[in-house]
């Protein structure tokens, strides 16, 4: 056996990664315990024999340790716990690095006993012991992504060994929970690491919360912060560009659609690497939300659901609400609200409280009303009673605000001064235009809309239509004219004559014309584009539906154009799509419900 340099300063290098040293079976050191482990340790502490100590560390770290030798090692090490102060830290590190999670239950139990004895006697090894568990939680040797987000039986067994040790450790040493939170933050996989590491790590962090519920909120905040980072680095425009099937030129449309469907069914994943990491990570969260709120009989556990809801709202407020224009992470709240209408109503009331609270920063109030509008429009589980109640709340607030401004001699119509007012107006217009089919299906509902006094809103001195997104204003104007709720076109034409357009370049360098007074708007529940976890959202997601009156009205508009050729009409639609929404997609008919990133109310063009 080769001898390692006998200098204490060289000990740190013993525990480092082997680097270029190949770890083939032929080159591995045969493990052999010394006759007296305690003597070797004492001789090193007394500086009598450093070489034997270094040789022992090397053989433990890189030697072939079978089950019998490992059991003997742990037995003898446990007898020397009292000696293992900071002077023997390298030896302790070497023992902690031994592969024990792939062994039998007897060895796992023995290692658990050693670890508890060690940390009870020398608690300064707690952080090091927890850090040695993190690689196990990231991967156990298999690099294949899980099917349907479920780990293999082998991985479940190995993860179970690690969790068994961690569970007892946290029960015996409650203070270790704080150390664990810091270790998890430091070892969370980087956003560009393989997707399997992300799903393993998130799966295991959520598993910890099952036996340590008090860590759930902290872990959820850590996980959601990483999901938001992934979401930000995977813009929807980039994801859609990479998901386009390159073989479209070589096959017909039916084959292309069939291939897309096949890819989704087989869970091949996303082409965009960061979007793929986000997709596979969110699967774990969707599964967790479902399993945590539903028992074995698939019935909703209301008490557990309420507890998880409160944690998620805290995470939403601290992480998501303060981040502008994320596209996918918020769908976890969208999914949670679908479990019971009471959850959705409570969340909407929470958002409305944020909106009307003067102590909340205006940017947060604007973001809250956008999330509120997105839920009212896109959530299929939002019933008409909740919809009408919140529309009435918004309408009352708007009229109160208008009355407070009408009493002034001079009104400052700067968007920045009245940003919350304008955002609430746009949200109200958006919700009415998007959900008008539900709001005009009975005489009672139509009377309700007439009672909102929409004419006063659009003709007030603050002129909210001037700052609304054009597609929202146009669709709202069409709906209100069809049902004689308000007459907006005169205001829109006046605004068009006195507007000052601004020309700027988009991310591709194309010139885009936009009104200088438009609100900074985003629609948090744009169509979901991640393939793996899309099925969690699909059944509860609402797409825009035109009423029969609108279809007749649009056909009359088309007939009145003078009989242009169909090809020319398609070109005009493409042009309008590009101009109104900044879209660079090649054909508007292919994406009737998906406009540019962050600017998609989901309307079809009129």
Main β sheet profile: 2 strands, parallel
Structural class: mainly alpha
Terminal Cα span: 82 Å
Count of runs of 4 or more consecutive helical residues: 28
Number of strands: 4
Q: Mind explaining what this structure looks like?
A:
This is RNA polymerase I-specific transcription initiation factor RRN3. The protein has 606 residues and is an all-alpha fold. Among the domains are: 212-246 and 268-379 and 530-547, no CATH class; 383-524, no CATH class. It contains 28 helices and four strands. The chain has helices at 11-14, 37-45, 50-62, 67-79, 89-96, 105-121, 126-138, 153-172, 176-187, 195-211, 216-232, 236-243, 253-265, 273-293, 302-320, 331-337, 341-356, 362-378, 384-406, 419-434, 436-439, 443-450, 454-459, 470-482, 489-497, 534-538, 548-559, 566-581; strands at residues 29-30, 63-64, 501-505, 511-515. The strands form two sheets. A two-stranded parallel sheet has the order 1-2. It has a two-stranded antiparallel ribbon with strand order 3-4. A hairpin with a 5-residue loop joins strand 3 and strand 4. The chain is elongated. The relative contact order is 0.06.
Quick tags:
two-stranded antiparallel sheet; mainly alpha; two-stranded parallel sheet; elongated; 606 residues; disordered N terminus
